[in-house]
Design brief:
The protein contains 9 helices and 11 strands. By secondary structure, it is an alpha/beta fold.
Length: 261
Protein backbone atom coordinates (compact mmCIF):
# COMPACT_ATOMS: atom_id res chain seq x y z
CA UNK A 1 0.00 0.00 0.00
CA UNK A 2 1.48 3.37 -1.07
CA UNK A 3 1.35 5.98 1.73
CA UNK A 4 -0.92 8.92 0.85
CA UNK A 5 0.31 11.29 3.56
CA UNK A 6 3.66 13.11 3.32
CA UNK A 7 6.52 11.69 5.31
CA UNK A 8 7.06 15.19 6.66
CA UNK A 9 4.79 18.25 6.60
CA UNK A 10 6.00 21.41 8.34
CA UNK A 11 4.40 24.82 8.23
CA UNK A 12 5.68 27.94 10.04
CA UNK A 13 7.91 25.82 12.30
CA UNK A 14 10.02 27.93 14.66
CA UNK A 15 12.27 26.33 17.27
CA UNK A 16 13.89 28.34 20.03
CA UNK A 17 17.34 27.21 21.17
CA UNK A 18 18.72 29.30 24.01
CA UNK A 19 18.84 32.94 22.97
CA UNK A 20 18.28 32.35 19.26
CA UNK A 21 15.98 30.57 16.85
CA UNK A 22 17.36 27.29 15.50
CA UNK A 23 14.58 27.28 12.88
CA UNK A 24 12.53 30.27 11.77
CA UNK A 25 9.12 29.86 10.11
CA UNK A 26 10.17 26.79 8.13
CA UNK A 27 7.77 25.32 5.56
CA UNK A 28 8.80 21.92 4.22
CA UNK A 29 7.12 18.87 2.68
CA UNK A 30 8.86 15.57 1.96
CA UNK A 31 6.94 12.66 0.48
CA UNK A 32 7.46 8.95 1.05
CA UNK A 33 9.60 7.55 -1.75
CA UNK A 34 11.26 10.91 -2.40
CA UNK A 35 15.04 11.13 -1.97
CA UNK A 36 16.02 14.55 -0.62
CA UNK A 37 19.24 16.26 0.44
CA UNK A 38 19.05 19.00 3.07
CA UNK A 39 22.20 21.09 2.77
CA UNK A 40 23.54 24.01 4.74
CA UNK A 41 26.57 25.39 6.54
CA UNK A 42 27.17 24.89 10.24
CA UNK A 43 24.58 26.78 12.24
CA UNK A 44 22.03 26.76 9.43
CA UNK A 45 19.47 24.70 11.39
CA UNK A 46 20.17 21.20 10.06
CA UNK A 47 20.64 19.58 13.49
CA UNK A 48 17.58 21.39 14.84
CA UNK A 49 15.50 20.06 11.94
CA UNK A 50 16.66 16.50 12.66
CA UNK A 51 15.67 16.88 16.31
CA UNK A 52 12.23 18.18 15.33
CA UNK A 53 11.68 15.14 13.12
CA UNK A 54 12.74 12.71 15.88
CA UNK A 55 10.80 14.68 18.54
CA UNK A 56 13.86 15.65 20.57
CA UNK A 57 12.82 19.28 20.08
CA UNK A 58 9.38 20.83 19.67
CA UNK A 59 8.35 23.98 17.78
CA UNK A 60 6.88 27.06 19.41
CA UNK A 61 3.10 26.64 19.69
CA UNK A 62 1.36 29.01 17.29
CA UNK A 63 -2.11 28.91 15.67
CA UNK A 64 -0.66 28.47 12.17
CA UNK A 65 1.80 25.73 13.19
CA UNK A 66 1.72 22.35 11.44
CA UNK A 67 4.24 19.65 12.36
CA UNK A 68 3.19 16.26 11.02
CA UNK A 69 5.08 13.05 10.43
CA UNK A 70 3.32 10.44 8.26
CA UNK A 71 0.08 12.41 8.58
CA UNK A 72 0.03 12.57 12.39
CA UNK A 73 0.79 15.45 14.74
CA UNK A 74 0.98 13.40 17.95
CA UNK A 75 3.08 10.26 18.30
CA UNK A 76 4.37 7.70 20.70
CA UNK A 77 8.01 8.72 20.33
CA UNK A 78 9.30 5.14 20.18
CA UNK A 79 6.81 4.25 17.43
CA UNK A 80 7.77 7.35 15.45
CA UNK A 81 11.48 6.65 15.76
CA UNK A 82 10.93 3.12 14.46
CA UNK A 83 9.59 4.67 11.25
CA UNK A 84 12.85 6.59 10.77
CA UNK A 85 16.18 4.77 10.60
CA UNK A 86 18.62 7.31 12.03
CA UNK A 87 22.33 7.22 11.15
CA UNK A 88 24.57 9.96 12.55
CA UNK A 89 28.05 10.66 13.80
CA UNK A 90 26.57 11.76 17.14
CA UNK A 91 24.72 8.46 17.52
CA UNK A 92 27.91 6.54 16.85
CA UNK A 93 29.68 8.49 19.61
CA UNK A 94 27.17 7.22 22.19
CA UNK A 95 28.48 3.64 21.80
CA UNK A 96 31.23 4.18 24.37
CA UNK A 97 30.63 1.26 26.74
CA UNK A 98 31.49 -2.28 25.55
CA UNK A 99 28.73 -3.19 23.09
CA UNK A 100 29.25 -5.80 20.40
CA UNK A 101 28.23 -5.28 16.81
CA UNK A 102 25.48 -7.88 17.17
CA UNK A 103 24.07 -6.12 20.24
CA UNK A 104 24.25 -2.78 18.45
CA UNK A 105 22.19 -4.13 15.55
CA UNK A 106 19.60 -5.65 17.90
CA UNK A 107 19.32 -2.40 19.84
CA UNK A 108 17.64 -0.89 16.78
CA UNK A 109 14.46 -2.77 17.72
CA UNK A 110 14.34 -0.84 21.00
CA UNK A 111 15.74 2.56 19.91
CA UNK A 112 18.34 2.06 22.63
CA UNK A 113 22.12 2.17 22.95
CA UNK A 114 22.92 -1.52 23.30
CA UNK A 115 20.77 -4.09 25.07
CA UNK A 116 19.50 -3.96 28.64
CA UNK A 117 17.98 -6.62 30.95
CA UNK A 118 14.42 -5.40 30.31
CA UNK A 119 14.70 -5.93 26.56
CA UNK A 120 12.98 -9.08 25.31
CA UNK A 121 14.90 -10.26 22.26
CA UNK A 122 12.88 -12.75 20.21
CA UNK A 123 14.21 -15.40 17.82
CA UNK A 124 12.68 -13.40 14.96
CA UNK A 125 14.69 -10.34 16.02
CA UNK A 126 17.87 -12.39 16.18
CA UNK A 127 17.25 -13.82 12.71
CA UNK A 128 16.55 -10.35 11.28
CA UNK A 129 19.70 -8.92 12.87
CA UNK A 130 21.89 -11.67 11.39
CA UNK A 131 20.21 -11.27 8.01
CA UNK A 132 20.88 -7.51 8.01
CA UNK A 133 24.51 -8.06 9.01
CA UNK A 134 24.96 -10.52 6.16
CA UNK A 135 23.33 -8.07 3.75
CA UNK A 136 25.78 -5.34 4.77
CA UNK A 137 28.73 -7.78 4.79
CA UNK A 138 29.56 -7.17 8.46
CA UNK A 139 28.79 -10.63 9.91
CA UNK A 140 32.48 -11.08 10.75
CA UNK A 141 32.20 -8.15 13.17
CA UNK A 142 29.41 -9.70 15.25
CA UNK A 143 31.46 -10.22 18.43
CA UNK A 144 33.70 -7.17 18.16
CA UNK A 145 33.06 -4.11 20.34
CA UNK A 146 31.80 -1.10 18.42
CA UNK A 147 34.34 1.09 20.23
CA UNK A 148 37.17 -1.01 18.73
CA UNK A 149 36.04 -0.62 15.11
CA UNK A 150 37.09 1.81 12.45
CA UNK A 151 34.68 4.68 11.80
CA UNK A 152 33.67 3.09 8.50
CA UNK A 153 32.86 -0.27 10.11
CA UNK A 154 30.87 1.38 12.88
CA UNK A 155 28.90 3.49 10.39
CA UNK A 156 27.87 0.32 8.53
CA UNK A 157 26.58 -1.08 11.80
CA UNK A 158 24.47 2.01 12.36
CA UNK A 159 22.88 1.40 8.96
CA UNK A 160 22.13 -2.15 10.09
CA UNK A 161 20.70 -0.85 13.38
CA UNK A 162 18.47 1.47 11.35
CA UNK A 163 17.29 -1.26 8.97
CA UNK A 164 16.24 -4.00 11.40
CA UNK A 165 12.76 -2.62 11.97
CA UNK A 166 12.15 -1.91 8.26
CA UNK A 167 11.82 1.88 8.60
CA UNK A 168 9.86 3.88 6.05
CA UNK A 169 12.76 6.30 5.64
CA UNK A 170 16.46 6.54 6.42
CA UNK A 171 17.42 9.80 8.10
CA UNK A 172 21.15 10.39 7.56
CA UNK A 173 22.62 13.20 9.65
CA UNK A 174 26.10 14.28 8.47
CA UNK A 175 26.77 10.57 7.89
CA UNK A 176 30.29 10.80 6.45
CA UNK A 177 31.76 13.00 9.18
CA UNK A 178 35.00 11.44 10.52
CA UNK A 179 35.19 8.96 7.62
CA UNK A 180 38.26 8.84 5.39
CA UNK A 181 37.91 9.05 1.61
CA UNK A 182 37.50 5.31 1.03
CA UNK A 183 35.09 4.75 3.94
CA UNK A 184 32.97 7.73 2.82
CA UNK A 185 32.86 6.36 -0.74
CA UNK A 186 31.81 2.90 0.48
CA UNK A 187 29.14 4.44 2.71
CA UNK A 188 27.66 6.40 -0.18
CA UNK A 189 27.62 3.28 -2.35
CA UNK A 190 25.60 1.47 0.34
CA UNK A 191 23.14 4.36 0.55
CA UNK A 192 22.75 4.37 -3.24
CA UNK A 193 21.94 0.66 -3.16
CA UNK A 194 19.36 1.17 -0.40
CA UNK A 195 17.73 4.00 -2.38
CA UNK A 196 17.52 1.76 -5.43
CA UNK A 197 15.88 -0.92 -3.27
CA UNK A 198 13.09 1.50 -2.34
CA UNK A 199 14.19 3.03 0.96
CA UNK A 200 13.34 6.74 1.20
CA UNK A 201 16.54 8.71 1.81
CA UNK A 202 16.69 12.03 3.67
CA UNK A 203 20.32 13.15 3.63
CA UNK A 204 21.20 16.05 5.95
CA UNK A 205 24.71 17.31 5.25
CA UNK A 206 27.05 20.22 4.56
CA UNK A 207 29.13 17.99 2.24
CA UNK A 208 28.01 18.17 -1.39
CA UNK A 209 29.78 14.88 -2.17
CA UNK A 210 27.23 13.09 0.06
CA UNK A 211 24.49 13.78 -2.51
CA UNK A 212 24.16 10.43 -4.26
CA UNK A 213 22.78 10.23 -7.84
CA UNK A 214 19.43 8.87 -6.62
CA UNK A 215 18.69 12.15 -4.82
CA UNK A 216 16.68 14.41 -7.13
CA UNK A 217 15.79 17.30 -4.80
CA UNK A 218 17.86 19.55 -2.56
CA UNK A 219 16.66 21.89 0.19
CA UNK A 220 19.15 24.62 1.13
CA UNK A 221 19.06 25.88 4.73
CA UNK A 222 20.59 29.16 5.85
CA UNK A 223 20.18 31.05 9.13
CA UNK A 224 17.39 28.73 10.24
CA UNK A 225 15.29 29.26 7.10
CA UNK A 226 14.67 27.43 3.84
CA UNK A 227 16.94 29.45 1.56
CA UNK A 228 16.02 27.57 -1.63
CA UNK A 229 14.33 24.32 -2.65
CA UNK A 230 14.37 22.59 -6.01
CA UNK A 231 15.99 20.06 -8.37
CA UNK A 232 19.51 19.00 -7.44
CA UNK A 233 21.05 20.27 -10.67
CA UNK A 234 19.71 23.76 -9.99
CA UNK A 235 20.40 23.83 -6.24
CA UNK A 236 23.96 22.51 -6.49
CA UNK A 237 25.09 25.10 -9.01
CA UNK A 238 28.06 27.34 -8.26
CA UNK A 239 25.94 30.52 -7.84
CA UNK A 240 23.50 28.83 -5.42
CA UNK A 241 26.17 27.20 -3.27
CA UNK A 242 28.39 30.27 -3.29
CA UNK A 243 25.45 32.28 -1.96
CA UNK A 244 24.60 29.58 0.60
CA UNK A 245 28.10 29.29 2.04
CA UNK A 246 29.03 32.95 1.60
CA UNK A 247 32.14 32.42 -0.49
CA UNK A 248 33.00 31.82 -4.17
CA UNK A 249 32.83 28.12 -4.99
CA UNK A 250 33.41 26.04 -8.07
CA UNK A 251 31.23 22.97 -8.51
CA UNK A 252 32.18 19.88 -10.47
CA UNK A 253 29.68 17.24 -11.52
CA UNK A 254 30.17 13.83 -13.09
CA UNK A 255 27.73 10.91 -13.43
CA UNK A 256 25.30 12.46 -10.96
CA UNK A 257 27.92 13.09 -8.28
CA UNK A 258 29.05 16.51 -7.11
CA UNK A 259 32.13 18.07 -5.60
CA UNK A 260 33.40 21.51 -4.65
CA UNK A 261 36.74 22.99 -5.62
Amino acid sequence: MIPTEPLLHLRTVTVRRGEKDGLRSVDLNIHCGEHVAIIGPNGSGKSTLIKVITRELYPLARPELVCRMFGQETWDVFELRSRFGLVSNDLQATYARPITAYEAILSGFFSSIGLWPAHQVTPAMEAKARSVMARLEVSHLADRAVSEMSSGEARRLLIGRALVHDPQALLLDEPTNSLDFRAAHEFREIVSKLAQEGHTIVMVTHTVADVIPEISRAVLLKDGRVHADGPVAQMLSAPMLSDLFGMPLRVVQEDGRYGIL
